[in-house]
Structures are given as C-alpha cells and as structure tokens.
Write a structure and sequence with these properties.
- The complex is a heterodimer of chains A (253) and B (315).
- Chain A has 253 residues and is an all-alpha fold.
- In chain A, 81% of the residues lie in helices and 0% in strands.
- Chain A is built from 13 helices and no strands.
- Chain A is elongated and about 60 Å long.
- With 315 residues, chain B is of the alpha/beta class.
- Chain B folds into 2 domains: 213 residues, P-loop containing nucleotide triphosphate hydrolases (Rossmann fold), CATH 3.40.50; 62 residues.
- Chain B is 32% helix and 28% strand.
- In chain B, strand 12 and strand 13 form a beta hairpin.
- In chain B, helix 4 packs antiparallel against helix 5.
- Chain B is elongated, with a radius of gyration of 23 Å.
- Classes of the chains: A mainly alpha (253), B alpha/beta (315).
- At the A-B interface, helix 7 of A face loops of B.
Chain lengths: 253, 315
C-alpha cells in the first residue's frame, strides 16, 4: 500500500498546492467581489451563471466559497485528477505489459485491486479536505468567519462527487488498455456535461448539478448532506467499483 | 537458492509436484490448450518445448493462476488451484517470458517489487543472486539491456524458498557466458530437490539440464519422456537419403523397422533396437528401392528427433 501511495505522492502534492493557491486567490478577492457584485452580475452573459450570482447575493460568503472552491476549483482540478489517477490505474499495466509481473506475485487480486483503488481515492479526496479545512484560517484575514462542520460536510460531498468520476474511469481502465483514450473519452464527457449545465433549459440534466453552488449552500444552511444527491453519488461510486472488480478478477496478462 | 522446506514425516506425497488434469483453454476460436495432463516432480528440471503458439505460455500462466482454465484442474505442491490462485502462487515462483518492467524504478526497487509477498530472506537471496549475475541494482531499469532485465526476472524467481519454480524462457537473449551462469544456478537449485518447469527455445540447454522433456503442439501434449529415453530413441533412428523418392511399404518390410516417415527423397526409419546392422544389410539387398546416397545413425539433435517422430518443430 505504501508503494502505491508513494507512486502518486507528487501529483497529489501538486494538486493540493493548486487547489490551495486557487482558494487563497479567490478568498483574497472576496471583499472586492462583494462590493462590486451588482456591476459584475450585469456582465454575466448566461442565466445559469446569473443564478449563481443570485445565490451569492442571498447567502454571501458561503455561496462565494462554494462557487470558487468547490464548483470551480475542486470540480475542475479535482475532476481532472480523478480521471488522471483512474485512467492509468490498470490500463497502463496492460498497455506496457507489466500486468503479468504485477499479478504474478503471491498477493491476492482483491488486495491489489483495493490498494490501487484506495490509494488513488485517498490522494483524490485528501487535498480537498485539507484545502477546505484551511478556509477558516484564510477567511480570518478577510474578516469572515465560517464554521468547520459545514465545511467538513461540503468537503465530504465534494469528495463523493469526485469519486463518482474516479470510479467509472477506473472501470474503463479495467476494460480498455488505452489510458489516453479513456482520458479523452472522459474529457469529452465532462465538456458535454458542462455544456448542458450552461444551457438554461437543459441545466437540470447536467451531472454538475449534483455539486454546484446551490447544493453547497444547502449543505451549509442545513448542516446535513442532501439525501437524494448523496445516494445517487454513492451508487455512482459503488456500482462501477463492483463492476471494475468483477472485470479485474478475470483479467489475464 | 533459498533451500526449500526439507521433507518431514508430515510432508505430503504431493509436495513439490506439478499436477494438471485435462486442462482446456480457448481464446475466441483458437483452442490454446486442448486437454493437457501433466504429472511432474517432485524434483528435477523438466523442459517444456513446443513451437510458437503451441500453448506453452498459456499452460505456464494457468499453472501459476494468472489465466483461468476453461476446464481442468491444477495442483501445485499439494495445493489445488482455486479462486485467484494465491495459495498456489505462495508455493511456487515464476519468471514470465514477456519482459516488461517498470523502467522508472531502480533494479533494487524492481527486485523488491517482484518479491513482494515473500519472506524477507527472499529479498536478501535475490540481492545475492543479482550480485552473482553482475546486475547493477542501483541503476534504473530503463537503462538496462534486454538480457539484464531477463536475469533480474530469473533472480527474483530463484530467490524464494519454494519447492516449485516455473520459468518461461529464462535464458532467452543472454550471451553464452550468462546463459552458462543461469544454468549453473538452475542446476544448484535442482540439486536441492526443487521441481523446475523450464520453457525454452534453446534445445541445447534443454538437452543439457532437463531430465524430462514435455512437448506441446497445437495445445496438446504429444510427448512426455525422460531425457535418457529420448536419447535412446535417437539412437534407434536411421536416416537415409535416396537418389529418388522411396516407397514406404518396401521400407516398412525391412528387417528391424518399426516405423517409417518419408519426406521427399529422405526417409527416417525408427528401428526396434539401437543396432542398425540387420536393417542396413536388408536395405542393401532390396533392389526395388532407389539407391541410398547418404545414411545417418545415432546423431540426432533434439530438434531433428522431434521433427522425425512427430513432424513438428520442437521450438
């Protein structure tokens, strides 16, 4: 397991630093943003994004934080990292022919699968939690105060959302020995989903609806995870993971 | 080599044995294995021969639990192959035929990776073997030659204290000196009582180190004999080159001839004994046959022998 964790350490550090820098930049800009919200809203071209501005106007700093840190930062950078970690997980072993030496050792397949899946998942969610938990510290510099518990819940929901991208990509990686092909397929899917999100009449069909500003504001206000959304995300993590295991179990060098 | 556990009163009779019963495996329309049975060991080096595509690698992967058989049973060192084959892989070591390593790792890290799941003594033994083979463990594997990578896989397979080793072409791509060193290590291990199943394309080395030879062809086992029996059969083959194509019936009627195989103007006669004199005398008297222009006896290589007996290339 340590070897698995070590192999992704540098990418995870880069991911965390990127998230943290984006967060610091966004929070530092908050006082100016709050002051000029009306003017900024008039510049926003799409109704869906104007809706987001309305949410920020109504809820203030927590909604801004959700938009900047979760919807913009973690969804985009985290989504990319989720695909990067998962697309290479098994497909690269098949592609470069190392599957045989990986599987030939006296280590059970279940253990190999769990180690690979969990190490990627660990580095995917840890930076989200760490950067989110640094919010109270950074917020102090701009005279804002946020509670830790709603942040923990938000980070959990965000992590689940990222895992729901990670798990299907991992499944593809067990099926298709072409990591770059998997990456492109997921990128196209993400672009398609984001396009849906930005179209007023179709936005409710977008996957990103499960982790947008509205959802995080609700978590912040109710101090609870949205039951329906959480169940959907859980299913999107568990089902592909089980299918990936079924495939991995029968994988032949 | 790490010494395999010594036999004791509790050691089952199946210890160190490789048993396969009626193994079948199909890849799409191609039948890779069509009912292979094996009972090898305990102890000794067994050569597994066969032309490309004969099913050798598939058989070895099934024995190690890497590929599942469509039907059949496997038992290694007294343990049945079940589930993902973990129990079997704990009782054998395996050097794959395909060379694909993690180039970004150093030799030492790669060796550690290959020996994961083994006791710590295996790693120190692996390091000793690598030192003996002159492998630069401190350097990244990316810069290593094909032969060096092959030797690392071999060292990793020879390091654990197990009773069964399965080696897929461990000397492929090695220079004669390194090949000699690898065979010497193999011999030392075999003397400790380990059962070694060796797939090889190098018939010279198979003749040299293997006590028993199994030949696969089109997914079927077509021969399983001791080396002495193979060599004895070699001494019973008479090869005759005629001036024109001979008639099989006439050759079969010659004294002492058991079997005849004709390829153009060349005939191979399998005799009942190693003494060809009676057959040669009968050949001289048979005027209906074309004139013999060259005769060979008792000098068949393994390649020739398998070609003569089975009509297939051994590798």
């Amino acid at each position: 397991m340590l070897g698995e964790l070590r192999s992704r350490l540098w990418l995870a550090i880069a991911y965390f630093v990127t998230l943290e820098l984006l967060l610091i930049g966004a929070l530092a800009y908050w006082p100016q943003f709050a002051e000029n919200l009306d003017k900024l809203r008039s510049l926003i071209p799409l109704p869906v994004l104007q809706e987001m501005a309305d949410e920020i106007e109504a809820s203030g700093f927590p909604a801004y934080l959700a938009g900047q840190h979760f919807f913009k930062g973690a969804n985009s950078i985290g989504g990319l990292v989720a695909v990067l970690f998962a697309m290479f997980a098994v497909a690269l072993e098949v592609q470069r022919g190392t599957l045989e030496i990986w599987l030939a050792r006296p280590v059970s397949r279940a253990r190999l699968f769990c180690e690979r899946w969990l190490s990627g998942a660990f580095w995917l969610v840890l930076p989200v939690f760490l950067s989110t938990l640094s919010v109270p510290l950074i917020a102090g510099y701009i005279d804002e105060r946020v509670d830790v518990w709603p942040l923990v819940l938000s980070a959990s929901h965000q992590s689940l959302f990222l895992l729901s991208i990670y798990a299907p990509t991992f499944l593809l990686s067990c099926w298709w020995a072409n990591p770059l092909g998997i990456g492109f397929a997921m990128l196209l899917l993400a672009l398609f989903q984001m396009s849906l999100y930005l179209i007023e009449n179709l936005t409710h069909y977008s996957y990103f609806r499960l982790a947008d500003v509205r959802v995080f504001v609700e978590i912040y206000d109710t101090e609870a995870l949205p039951v329906g959304g959480t169940l959907v995300l859980l299913a999107l993590v568990i089902v592909p993971t089980l299918l990936a295991w079924k495939r991995f179990e029968k994988l032949t060098p | 080599m790490n010494t395999p556990p010594p036999p004791s009163a509790d050691t089952p009779v199946t210890a160190g044995r490789i048993v396969a019963r009626s193994l079948h495996r199909r890849f799409g329309t191609k039948e890779a294995l069509a009912g292979v049975d094996l009972e090898l060991g305990p102890g000794g080096v067994i050569g597994l021969l066969g032309p490309n595509g004969s099913g050798k690698s598939t058989l070895l992967r099934i024995l190690t639990g890497l590929t599942r058989a469509d039907a059949g049973e496997v038992e290694i060192d007294g343990v049945r192959l079940e589930g993902d084959g973990l129990a079997v892989r704990q009782r054998l070591s395996y050097a794959p035929g395909e060379i694909a390593l993690y180039g970004e790792l150093s030799g030492a890290a790669m060796l550690e990776f290959l020996l994961r799941g083994r006791p710590p003594e295996a790693l120190s033994r692996g390091q000793e073997l690598c030192a003996r083979l002159g492998l630069p463990l401190e350097r990244r594997v990316r810069g290593w030659s094909h032969g060096m990578k092959r030797q690392l896989l071999f060292a990793a397979a020879m390091a654990p204290a197990v009773r069964v080793r399965i080696l897929d072409e461990p000397t492929e791509g090695l220079d004669p000196r390194k090949r000699g060193e690898v065979l010497a290590i193999l011999g030392e291990d075999a003397r400790l009582g380990t059962t070694i199943l060796l797939s090889s394309h190098h018939l010279g080395e198979t003749e040299r180190v293997c006590e028993r030879i199994v030949l696969l062809h089109q997914g079927r086992k077509i021969s399983d004999e001791s080396r002495s029996s193979v060599l004895e059969r070699a001494r019973r083959v008479l090869r005759v080159q005629f001036a024109s194509e001979p008639t099989a019936g006439l050759l079969e009627s010659l004294s002492g001839v058991l079997r005849v195989r004709i390829e153009g103007t060349r005939a191979s006669l399998e005799l009942g004994s190693a003494d060809p004199r009676a057959t040669l005398a009968a050949l001289g008297q048979q005027s209906a046959l074309p004139a013999p222009i060259a005769i060979e006896h008792g000098s068949l290589s393994l390649t020739d022998l398998f070609r003569e007996f089975y009509g297939v290339e051994a590798c």
